[in-house]
Amino acid sequence: MKTSRFICMVLAVAMVLSLNIFQFESIHAEDKIYATTSSPAIPVTVGEAINLEDVMVEFSSNVYFRASDVNITVTDDSKDTLKIENGKLTASEEGLHIIMVEKNNIVKTVYVVARASADGDFVLFFDEFEAELLDGYRRVEGFSSDVYVENGFLFLKGNTLRSPRLLLPEFLDDFGDYEIEVVGTITDAAEQTRWSSIMYRSQNNNAQYLQMCIRKGATANNGIEIAENTGGWTVHKTASYKEAISSDKMYTFKVHAEGPEINYYINSEKVLSGKLEGYIKGGIGLQANNSTFKIDSLKVKYVAGKPGKAGYTFFEIVQPDMGIIGGMGLSEFVENQDDLTRIAELGMKPANVIFYIDKELNVTDNTYSNPYMGIEDAIMSLMGVMTPTFYINDEHAANNLGDFLKDNKLEDCFVMSGNPELVQIVRKKARMSRGVIDFTEKYKDKESVSKDDLMEIRGIVNSNMASVCVIPSNIANRVNVKFLYDRLVSVWVNAVNDLTQKKDAYSLLITGAHGIISDNTHLVYETAMLMSGSKLLRVPLNVGHRGVPSLAPENTIEGALLAYENGADVIEIDIHLTKDGVPVIIHDANTARTCNGVSREVRNSTVEQLKELNANSGRTDFGEIKIPTLEEFYEAIKDLDVFVFVELKSTEKELVTALREATLKHDMTDRISVITFHTSNITNMNREFPEMSVGYLMGASATGATSDLQTRSVLGIIQPYGTTYNPSYNYHSKDFFTKANMRGITTWPWTINNEVVITYFLAGANGITTDTCQILAPFTKFLNAKKLEHKLEPGDNLKIEATRTTYGREEIDASEDVRIIFLEGEELVTVKDGVLTFKKYGTVVYALEYTHEIDENNSYTVYSEPVTIAIEVLPGSSNTWLIIAIAAGVVVVAAAVILSIVFRKKKNNT
Q1: How confident is the model at residue 703 (pLDDT cuts 50, 70, 90)?
Q2: Three-state secondary-structure class, residue 50
Q3: Domain residue spans of the chain
Q4: How far apart are CA 491 and CA 742, in angstroms?
C-alpha cells in the first residue's frame, strides 16, 4: 500500500452518501474555489454568477463536499443581496454575506465576499474611522480613554500601567488566512524599544495570539518581530527596518498570513518572513505598549483557501453536548457497511467509531474474516467529525497499522486491543496515537473485581504506553471507575449486551467513565437528557497543594493531616534526595524559605542535619515542625482515605529508585501517582517503575483555533511520554476539558485558589490542585439512595430516603431535597410529598438527583445509582391468602360447572 494513495484520499471530497457506498474525488483542481477551515469564504464579483459545483466546502479537517451537494440557507440579513438559483450563486451588492451549509446534520457558516468589479479587492472588513468606533470591536485591555476615535484616526494609547488591546469584530475569528493592512504610525513612545502591534490568529479572548511587533526604533535588530503570546512571550523571528518609525509619517503595515506562511511588509517592502504551525485561525487586533498607535485606516482582505496545507489530519468532534461536566465520549463498533451508513446518517453522532482492522489494513467484522472496506475509505467515511479507533488482534496488523499511521501523519486516532503488546507496537511507531487496552473478555463473566484486579489494569495500561482502559459493564460501577481515574487512567465502559433500556443506559452514565461503548448512542444521549442541571458524574479530585498552605506550613505532616480534615482527596508533596540517599519532603532545593532563613542544600545534607531545622515557615502558631522523610509521611497517612501525588523535584535516577523502594516497602503503590516537570524523570519512571501513573507538569500548552486543535497541541507534548497533562491552569476552557477527555487526555491544572476553584471545578478539570482545599470541603461529591433494591406489593408506600456525601466526608440527609428520575414503570406508581405509592404489579426503576447550589450564579447536580422496586406477591402477605382464596374459588366454580355438564349428559343419555 503506497503512502501517497492515502494522502490523496485524505485530501479528497466526500461527494455522495448513497445507501451503501461513499464516493470521493480528488480536490487538487485549479478551477475550483475552496471554502476552507482557515478561509471559510466564497469570493464573487457583483452580478457574476458562480457555479456551486465549482465550490468545495471544508466541513472538517481535509473533508470537503461540493456546495452543490449540500443544503444551503441564506441568512435573513443576506436574503436581499444574495440569490441561489439553478445551482448558481449571485451577489447583487458589494460586501460580506452569510450562508449556512449543512450535510449529514453538520452545519457550517460560510461567508460570501463580493467585490464591486473584476479589478477590485475581496474585502472582509474596512474602517476609515470617520465616526465613533464601529459596533463589534472588543476592548480586552485598557479603558475607553486608552482606545478612542478622534479626527478620523483610531488611537490606542499605552502607558506604564496598561497596554491597551482592541480586537476587531468577532466574525473575523472564523478566519486565519487573510491580509491585514494598517495605515498608521507610532507616536509618544516612552523609549525607542517600545512598540505597537498587529495581533492575528488570536485565541480564547486574546489569551493567546501571534503579532507583528513594530518598535518605534525599528532599525534595531529586533525592530520587527514575529512574536507569540501564551501568557508569556516567545519571539520566533526578528528583523530590522531601514528607518525608525516617524511620528510625522504614515506607514502601511501589512501582515499576510496564509497557512503556516507568515509575511510582514512595511510600505510594500517585505521585511520579515516565517513559518508557524498550530495557529490555523483566530481573531485580529491591535495593541500599544507604552506608545501610541495612531491609525488612519484598517483593511482585512480575503486570502484564498488551499486544501491540505496543514499536512496532518485532525478531526472536529461534533457529538452533541450532554450537559456532563468534563464531557463523556460515546463510541460504537462498526462491523459492516450498514452500521457505517447508519452512524453517518445519525443526527446524534458518537465521538468515536471503532473499526476492526485485519493485517492487510482492511476493515472487517469481529471475526476478522469478512473485510468490506479499506482503511482509507473508512477514515474518510467519518467526514472528519468522528475519531477512528482501530481494533487489532495480531502482530502483523499492529506493525502495518503503526507504519500506516506514521507515514500518513494520521494523528487523531486510537489503537485498541485486548493484547497490550499490540498497542505498544503501534504506539512506538505512531507516537500521536492513543492506546486503548480492552479488558472486556477478561472480566465479562465476573460479578465483581478486587483492588488487585484494578491495580493490575492500571499497571498494564501504564506499562504498555496506553492511556485508556475498557472495562465491561458488568464490573463497571462508580466505585471501580473512580478507583481507576483517580489513579490517572481514563476509563471507557463497554456495554456487553444490546442497549435497549433507559435504566441500563443510566447505569452506564452514572459510572462517571470518560467514555461509553454501546450499540445505541441515541439512547445514551436521550437518557442523559432526563437528568437535569450541570451533570457532575465524574467527581474531580480535590488536591491539596503541599497540604493546605493557606492554613498550615507546606510539605509537612501537620499540613497534610489538616488538608485531609478540610476535604482533600489528594495530598501533593515534593521530594528531594538527601546526601545519604533518603527522599525527604520539601519543595526547594535549599531550606532557607521554609526553615526560617536557615540555608542548607538538601542534596548536600544528611537527614540528621535537616532534622535539626524548624520547617514551620515562620508560623509560630505551629511550634516546631520537622522536615519529614517520605517514609514518615507514608506512615502518618496510611490509615486515612487519602491519595498522594508525589512530585519529583530533582532529576537523579537515584530519586526514582528511592521512591520505588519506599513505596513498595510501605505497600503504597495503590495510593500514589507521580508528577514531574522533567522528561528525564518520566523516562526513568518508565524504566524503573513502569506500572506507575505519571503526570507531566508544564505551563499552559493548549494552543489552537478550536478546542479540538488545542488538544492536538497537548497531545504533541504528552503522547511521546505517555503521561497525563498537568498544566498551569490559565487559558483552559470548558470545551477544551470536554474534547480532551473524549480523546483520553486527563487534565490536572495547578495551582488554583479562591473563587477560581469554582470556575475550574465546573469547567471539567479532572482535579483541582489548590492551596485552599477547604473551599471544596462543603461541596457535594455523591448522592446515595438509602437502599437500591426493594420488594413491595400493590398498595405499599415507600418514603424516599437519601444522603449526600461532601468532600469534607460528611454524610448529610438529602431526603427532602431530591428529585426523582423515572427510568421504568412510572405508570405503576404515584408520588406525593416524597412518598411513592405502588398501584400495580411490575417493576419500577428510578434514580434520585440533587442540585448543589454553590452561590446565586453557580450550581451542579449529582445523581444516585438506580433504585429497583419489584412489585409482586410476597410470601405470607394478606395478598397471598387473597389470591389463594380466589384461586380456590375459581377451582370450586369450575368443578361445579364440570359436574353440571356431566350430569346433563347422563340425563340426556337415559
Answers
A1: confident
A2: strand
A3: 32-117, 124-302, 329-528, 541-776, 780-871, 874-910
A4: 10
- Cβ partners under 8 Å of residue 878, min gap 6: none
Taking residues 247-266, what's their average pLDDT? 97
Distance CA 801, CA 704 (A): 48
pLDDT tens-place string over residues 214-243 = 999 999 999 999 999 988 899 999 999 999
By CB atoms closer than 10 A (0-12, 13-18, 19+), residue 272 is buried
| Domains 32-117 and 780-871 equal at CATH topology level | yes
CATH node for 124-302: 2.60.120.560
Query: Which phi-psi region, left, alpha or beta, contains residue 326 (left: φ > 0; alpha: ψ -120 to 50)?
Result: left
Q: What is the mean pLDDT of residues 573-593?
A: 98
Pick the CATH number of 780-871 from 2.60.120, 1.25.10, 2.60.40, 3.40.50: 2.60.40
Predicted TM-score of the model (pTM): 0.81
For residue range 79-96, list pLDDT tens digits in order.
999 999 999 999 999 999
What is the grid cell recorded at 149? 476615535
DSSP label at residue 380: H
Q: What CATH number should be reported for the domain whose range is 32-117? A: 2.60.40.1080
CB 472 within 8 Å of CB 453: no
So what CATH class is 329-528?
Answer: alpha beta
Q: Taking Cα atoms as reference points, which of 686, 694, 772, 695 lies closest to residue 727?
A: 695
Q: Which CATH superfamily is domain 541-776 in?
A: Phosphatidylinositol (PI) phosphodiesterase (3.20.20.190)
Separation of alpha carbons 702 and 749, rounded Å: 12
